[in-house]
Amino acid sequence: MDSKLIVLKLFVQGLGIDGEIDNFQGRKDFQKAVLLGQSISGIDLGYRFNWYLYGPYSPALARDYYQIAEAIEFGDREYEKHYLVDAIREKLDGIRSLFNVPEDLNLSQSDWLELLASWHYLISISKYDDKQASETIKRTKPHLAPYIENAKKTLI
Amino acid sequence: MPKFHAQRITDAVHGTFGISAVEADIISTRVFQRLHNVKQLGLAHLVYPDLNYSRFAHSLGACHVVSRMIRAINLNCPHKQLPENDHQLYRLAALLHDLGHYPFSHAMEHVVEEYYKRTSYLTAGRAQKIEQIDGNTLGDTTERAYFSHEALGRHIIDEDGELHAVLKKHSISREELKAAVSREQPGKLVSLVSSDLDCDRIDYLMRTARHSGLPYGSVDIEYIIGQMCVDSNNHVCLTKKALRAADHLIVSRYFDYTQVVFHKTVVAFEEVLKKIICELLERGQLDCSSTMIQKKINDGEFANFDDQFIIGKFRKILSDLNASSDSSLKTKIEAVLYRRPPKIVGRLERIRGRESQYRSEHRNLVRQIKEKINGWANRLNIPEDLWYVWEKYLPMTKIGSLVPISDIEKSVEEETAQGIHILTTDPSDINSKSRLLVDYEHALSQKLSLSNLYMIRVYVHLSESENDAKRKQREIKQMIRDDLSDFPFSE
Fold first, then answer.
1. pTM of the model as a whole
2. B11, B105: one domain
3. What is the span of the domain harbouring residue A78?
């Protein structure tokens, strides 16, 4: 497992995400966690995200998490011998709580991550205003639209 | 379309085509002119002498191809006319998609990424604090130790004064341009510049076929472009009529990879190059940190950060080397400068399924070889540093490389967006749908998507003269085969 993959594995662990990708839910969570983790912590791992039909996605990140999964499947646990430097770990610790679903919301963590990541992407990266971002969420993820205000409050 | 004919370019691949005034001004900037001296295929010209085309030519070609794709889509899908302003932005996205490429492209970038992630982001001891790396203190506003080529392209758009002046002259905002280059706007046709069928790949295949002299890129690209359309989910796709041509494209790409990118000698040179760059980074004789790159951009020196910059560094270092203590580095640099590649002394190449048993087998075989290198190095008195074990498995089609075919229906839409899509309805249907090419039972691609090409190669530098080197190579091959008598070496 090369350094790039070790960093990615530890980064996602540092965000409190298990990083399992054997189902599409896990893969979605991985994508959203890295997007938010990079953007909010400011630690740039080099993954760029495009907006596909349903939300931000990085093909390069997908390639790398499949490689991680394969390496682990074949017994490569090199990442267990390394740690992220303190400066990075502290930043990730500081944002981990954002990924917890607010108590009064009836949403899975996966849906919460998807909402946070999509809203953040539309506002901060696509440079949409609130109205454009809300309309996009309503059109592409109507089941998450009622919780937009919660996402906004969390990301301030 | 007078907007895109402010100037004319005559190109070996596409003939004569026009570019707009803003494109003409952009290609005249120093940061874009730099791409004249960044070869698309690194050191491949040392094997195919004419394969030395630049990223400059390729970027212009991609710009032209994306226009042709858009015109075809507008023709085939009357209900999906792209606004003219979007047309210019897609062209700029294609033109600038390689702006931030490193000298020697992916080979160098991979080494740079590995080095800076290892030294700046990781520590072996939990208590160890690393706060200062190459003058870049983590906790600064720039929280990156290095730039990926895509991030670097965006950064150049942000920071380069000459480029900024051009954009201002043509009333294009940097944000608008970055969004187009980075494909960050919902509702846009991301797959025009990022998919199995994007303008980048199409120009690359055509240009590489032309310059290599190989026939593998001779796909009916004209027909493929003419059959482009868009489905109701904004996937760029092909009409049903183009299914066979799309299959041919996938097969051609496979042969391009095996004959060009993974040619045994091209790989040999690339592995040597990567080792040299790694060693120079470790020694502090090369600095590709984000701090240094930022400084080059600020000082206007980034325009000189090209293949010749690296070759010049190699020449200088070679002339300064102490031959007795640095013989390995000397050998490697001379290999690149004087075309003396390491010789292949062991090889395995075969096509197998993508199931985990085959990938596990591949990993075990690689491990067997790697465990032997130290012993062979000592036995032959050739330093371990001068041996290379290269391994790769090549998925035959892109969709299969990420998502197992069996999981396509369970995958997220984004995972399948990169694959080639074939329209299942008429192009003029406003509710048109498409399916992945690999989903069609009569598509060759479906069968290919079930397989990988597995490759393992062992190379070693030989110091002997030409005739003696051939004899030595045969001896080493035999020694390796005798040592690993059960290893399924290829002939």
1. 0.92
2. yes
3. 3-155
